[in-house]
Amino acid sequence: TPKSPKTTSTSSTKEPHKKVGRVWSNSGSTKDHAELDYSSNPTSDDQSNIDKDLEVNKHFVGTMIGELQTVEEVENLSDDSYESEDEEQKVNDDKSSKSETNNKQQTGLLSFFKTLTGQKIITKEGMAPIIDKMKEHLISKNVAADIANQLCSSVSTKLEGKVIGTFGGITSEVKKTLGESLTQLLSPRRQIDILRDCMEAKRLQKPYSITFCGVNGVGKSTNLAKVCFWLMENGYHVLIAACDTFRAGAVEQLRTHVRHLNALHPPEGDNEPSVTLYEKGYGKDAAGIAMDAINFARDRMIDVVLIDTAGRMQDNEPLMRSLAKLVHINEPDLVLFVGEALVGNEAVDQLKKFNHAMMDFSKSDNPRLIDGILLTKFDTIDDKVGAAISMTYTAGQPIVFVGTGQTYADLKRLNVQIVVNALLKG
Question: What is the pTM of this model?
Fold first, then answer.
């Protein structure tokens, strides 16, 4: 007889495990696209944001008429960073009661000059260790190393052969020599008066144009809006040319600034708005947009054109060629390099390569270079103000504006003495 077939197990087989996508908290979904899309026309929420911005900035309206104010002195920074001769004499007369003060003085930059006490003539050999310490001090303040070398060489040359009597005399002489050298480096050969130049351009019935350039993330668009607010405060109509056709969101950022600025300075009656945005979207030729914007401003009798460009690293040849083309074709009245106050040696590299690129890639026999500097984030550096020295020395051009905060009124002029005091602070 045939064998009966074996009975199979009736237990159900396990289903294969399916991988489920992880859902992150607050990650959003495609359903949120409409809510997060700010590229369309203003909505009620946008108007609410404008009202909030107006509330924050409205008390600044009317405060920036005329020349900009200078940067206020850094906290705890004053001329008494150095001890006066009278104070030093008092310390010598009462050592027992001022021993703690003496110990503190020994730690300062000028304490290194106490080794020269009693010398009648300062020699180069005697100055060598002190100059090295001075160089380290300047580098610690964010002065580029090469520029610190040149500055120290200048101080050494000026002090060599000086006849010095007491330590108090050395203190006074070194303070004076350092201050003179720093002031000479920081004071440019020419001054830029934008309000005067805008008035002259208006008299000639042509727009005054400013191009803003620099590396990524330094605050070009934000500080362009501050400059725009200052010009509006002084009665000028402004056109902003959106020539950053590379970075996503660049046009929308300028569009938001324009709405906020017009809310602060609304047009009277049926007049043109105080500031207008000229845009052609993304992926277009920046030089062509800038040319069209300047022609548009000339036809509409708009006083000033502010040209926003894409952030670019100094080694990015295609973008540097694009910048050189924009400057060569449109010949703006002013080319401003926007740089951070946070950098040290990098500031020198950026400025040198921007100038070299504009020279190499320009088709002109007399190419345009950087005309001035806008130094941003100056409120974040405490007394490490060396980038101001590095940029001015490298470009040979003035620091036209200093950004000191996040509101439209946080735009100042550089105070040379404040920077010198900060650099000398030991």
Answer: 0.77
